[in-house]
Amino acid sequence: MLTGNAAAAWGVRLAEVDYIPIYPITPQTEIIETLAGWISNGVMDSRFVTMDSEHSMLTAAGSASATGARAFTATSSQGLLYGFEMLYAVAGWRVPLVMVNVSRGLSSPITLEPDHNDVLAARDTGFLQIHCETCQEVLDSILMAYRLAEDERVLLPIFVNLDGFYLSFTREPVEVPDVEQVRNFLPLYQPKHAFFKASQPMAQSAAVLGGLAYSYFKYQMHMASQNALAVYKEVCDEFETGFGRNYDTIEGYMLDDADYVLVMTNSFSTLGKAAVNAARERGLKAGLLRLRLLRPFPVTDLKAAVTGKKAVAVIDQNISIGKGGILHSEIASCLYHEKHRPLLLSFIAGLGGKNISPDEFEFIINKMVTGADTEDAGTAQLLYTDTEWQEMGRLKGMAGKG
Amino acid sequence: MYRVRFHGRGGQGARVASKVLGTAAFLDGYYAQDFPLYGAERRGAPVAASTRISEDPIMERGVIPEPDIVIVMDETLLQDPLTMPLSGLKPGGIVLINTTHSPAEAKAVYKITAQVITLDITKIGLDMLGMPILSTLAGGVAARIVGLSEDSLKAAVEKVLSEIITDRKLLDKNVAAALYCFNAITPAKIELKTIDTNKKKSTVISLPFEPAEISSPAINATGNTPLRMTGNWRVFRPAWNYEACTRCMICVARCPDGCILVNEDGYPYTDYDNCKGCLICVGECPTNTLGKVMEVHAKKVTG
Amino acid sequence: MAGNGAIEGDGGKGVKDMGVERIKSIKGIPPEENVLPGTPACAGCGGLLALRHCMKALGQKIVIVNAAGCFTLLTIYPYTPFKNSWLYTAMACAPAGAQGIRDALDILIKKGRLDPDEDLKVVVLTGDGAAYDMSLSSTSGAINRNLDFYYICYDNEAYGNTGVQWSGATPFASKTGTTPPGMIRPMGAELVKKDLFAIWGSHKPPYLATISPAHPVDLINKFKKAEQYNGPKLFIALSPCPPGWGIDTSYTVKLAKLAVDTGVWALKEAVSGDLKHTVVPKRFKPVEEYLQVQGRFAHLFKPVRQEAALNKIQEGVNEYWNRHKLLL
Questions:
Q1: Higher model confidence: residue A12 or residue B83?
Q2: Which residues contact A383 (CB under 8 A, 6 or more apart)?
Q3: Is residue B136 part of a domain?
Q4: CATH fold of the domain at A250-389
């Protein structure tokens, strides 16, 4: 039994990471404390340094990676934003840093529990993104992440994302792979493109003036990220061969014959699967699609999975203020040219860790059914229940907002 | 529409010249747009600025690849392979050169086919302002070439300069110098030929993927900035008279750019390909080995 | 060489052999040029002159970690003036980049994946904007961890790369783009320059120095001395800046000398906190001689002489040298 955070630490240990610059932030801190303990006891041969901020932490991690070491770091919400400048920088260096983000809602108001605005804010940086539902998946994804990021066709940094609290602090059974087996899967990192050594001087991250060169470098990053889709499939197959667990870019749950599809990411997908079961008991052909790889976006896999369905409801645990659900927008753009595109509904839910109750899932599925009948997707629905409204009224009263 | 490109050196006033012209055009009732082109280069380095003037709303932005009029504020730029101030100049367009040459001489020396007007603005600047800052002067000649009014030019110089300097006397001198330049030239008629049909069209390609070993913004070459040849920044050059040289090495120690080398006999000499002409060496030389010569004259002497 | 912040590593402030070979005159300056010409730095750049000598002292087996500033633009694709390695980070975090590289080199050597001959000295290169303001957090962390690195600040007393605005290094009464002298504030900058040497000193690093582009012998000998110490090594170079200071390009060295001769810029070093002034003028020139040749102080003399401001500057200089019992 391991928490999501402990599973992440195990992934780092098994990947035999060289360098771990860190900075504490809830709910990520357990990862770095676990690693600190192992390094202190000598069971892990890595260098571990507490930096002065996430900005410095990301810089140190990226710089070590640019020197040729295998580096790891982790953060969450405010910390991710504090270091944000360096996400673009490190991605531009084309170094395969693996970074765990433990999702947590963003201030203001400051909060602790999860939603995905933090990691999705980084979606344009050049970092690849893998989002996890289970603790096992967290461990496995870190191993896959190094393989993917260090592949010469890719060479971009990568996020492994897990929800704060609902995964980070949640214990469940996790199988810890054998280190020798991991070594077979994940060879030593020996970069040809980014290193520092006396015999071969290299000026990394040079300034660029003029759009001609700037566009070239940015386009190459995009193409490398696109390459990662095919490389991911190879990594995925090899991982399944070695460890017996399969993680495709998307995961389908009762999806093949489904008419009505929930689209979710991360740990609350488990709740969505339960809702699918409940709907099936009601005689509705419901299914769930969980997006696992968010960058690069698995356009082809997504299209193949949902075209021809009657309705798809995207449940965004994020909100782009003034637009709506981020994933809804991304999925809509993928499906625009599909002849048999499904009706696409948008729901905002689970902000700041707010629960999604079975009643709300039932509401969503009913909306899909009626929407499909009337061919009307409606507008984005901010999920909030009458009991929550009443409770909020009580809080407002206590705050003197009578 | 007239598209005017100013070429000068950082600190010479190309940017302000483009503003003076833009403001004067605006005051004459035209649509106008002016902007500087920033690079990494600093004081002394070649810079460019542009002004567009039109009777209709301007639907262009960014660099002017094909100007109708080019104002060359520094003659030495004409021979600079990296600046190429006349590049893209339209057939029938006009180039004004700040030089002591006559138009015929300039056309011959610099092998220019376009219409050439010449005026020694540097001398006017030194005489009337006491310094070689040529912004309002270049603005003045440009205003005349495009056919703007004297009143608008005067008002434009007042307006633009009052935002930069507080010295009223200097401002008045600038107005006078701008008007002097305005009246000192006889502009040629701009006779633009119709669109060049031989122009090669660009083709949009599918960019090939290249691995990070090639496509990361890292430089595997070392010490290659001398290829940039910053020698073209110089207005004055350090000149050597070795009779007094004691090989003290002070000049070598004082050069920020490491452009003073030492020959086999221990005598220092200048790397003119890269020397930016700061002249620290001239001031620091304890003997009279080093002096300064204006670059245009040095070029004439050495060919 | 990560220090007390690290779980691993000894963190000791080891001192090598104390025998230092000093150079005696400018003829002893190493002839190798390690920053080549052709950079986009301004003609007469005082910072570049200081850097050129620093690089002669450091040699080629180094990696520069560059903070955002004028010198970002030394390396513009596809050109670099350096024969050594280089990494541009961002404004706030060059010392953190130095940490990552130093640690990575140590690990790779320790694990046998990098030949010890391939090792590099790690050098942060920063302007005063980053050094005095934005990167204090990352710098404090690096010094506290006793990171083995050189830290070179070319201090031109303003945000120069953005066109000269006030920074924490801007001296009192200086005119910059954001401290324009006016009716309400005739003196320009109201605040006094931060004391970066003291900020560093409070962290007790093994070696601190101020340097000047006009004193290359002193500069190079300081690097030779610093080389003996493991840990953070600070070098602040007061760097006359022709566009920022309003001086002719040929005046850079003159101004750098005047700064020392008037006592405005104290050339000093501190070895494990033991402070020593390395160049002390026999007789201090009046500060006015330094101020009146600079455009950034012109408003102190014209149209009306600002006596109070001028006195305050001279008194500040006197107070410093009195405190160190060196004012003759």
A1: A12
A2: A347, A348, A349, A356, A360, A363, A364
A3: yes
A4: Rossmann fold (3.40.50)
Query: Measured between alpha carbons, how far is B227 from B223 in angstroms, rounded to an integer?
Result: 9
The DSSP string of B45-80 is: SEEEEEEEEESS-----S--SS-SEEEES-GGGGG-
User: Do B250 and B133 sit in the same domain of this protein?
Assistant: no
Nearest CA in chain B to C242: B43
Selecting from A19, A39, A50 the residue whose C-beta is nearest the C-beta of C5 gives: A50
Chain C touched by B221 (CB under 8 Å): yes
The answer, yes or no, to whether ipTM is higher than 0.90 is yes
Task: With residue B159 as reference, give the H or E element that holds it.
Answer: helix B150-162
The half-sphere exposure of C256 on its side-chain side, counting CA atoms within 13 A, is: 35
Query: Could you read off the pLDDT of A258-311 as tens digits, one per residue?
Result: 999 999 999 999 999 999 999 999 999 999 999 999 999 999 999 999 999 999
The SS3 call for residue B9 is strand
CA diameter of chain C: 69
Q: Mind listing the pLDDT tens digit for each residue in A252-267?
A: 999 999 999 999 999 9
pTM above 0.80, yes or no: yes
Q: Where are the domains of chain A?
A: 4-243, 250-389
The full set of domain ranges for chain C reads 26-323
The per-residue DSSP string of A56-109 comes to HHHHHHHHHHHHT--BEEEE-HHHHHHTHHHHHHHHHTT---EEEEEE-PPSSS
Helical packing angle, A269-281 and A358-374, nearest 10°: 60
Do A195 and B216 meet the contact criterion of CB atoms below 8 Å apart? Answer: no
d(C-alpha C62, C-alpha C58), whole Å: 7
Count A/B contacts: CB-CB distance under 8 Å.
59
Window 249-268 of B, Cβ < 8 Å to C: 249-250, 252-259, 262
How far is Cα C241 from Cα C247, in angstroms, rounded to an integer? 8
Alpha-carbon distance values, A322 to A110, A295, A319, A325, B181 (Å) = 20, 23, 8, 10, 55
Q: Domain range spanning residue B105?
A: 2-184
Cβ(A247)–Cβ(A223) below 8 Å: no
Residues B126 and B18 in one domain: yes
Give the helix, strand, coil percentages of chain B, each rounded to 5: 35, 20, 45
Q: Verify that B13 and B130 share a domain, yes or no.
A: yes
* A327 vs B261: CA distance, rounded Å: 62
d(CA B99, CA B118): 6
Query: Which CATH architecture describes the domain A4-243?
Result: 3-Layer(aba) Sandwich (3.40)
User: CA A157 to CA B232: how far, in whole Å?
Assistant: 42
User: Residue B103 maps to which CATH number?
Assistant: 3.40.920.10
CA-CA-CA-CA torsion sign (C263, C264, C267, C268): positive
| Nearest alpha carbon to residue C7 among A22, A87, A102, B99 | A22
Note whether C19 contacts B: Cβ–Cβ < 8 A.
Answer: no
Report the top-level CATH class of C26-323: alpha beta
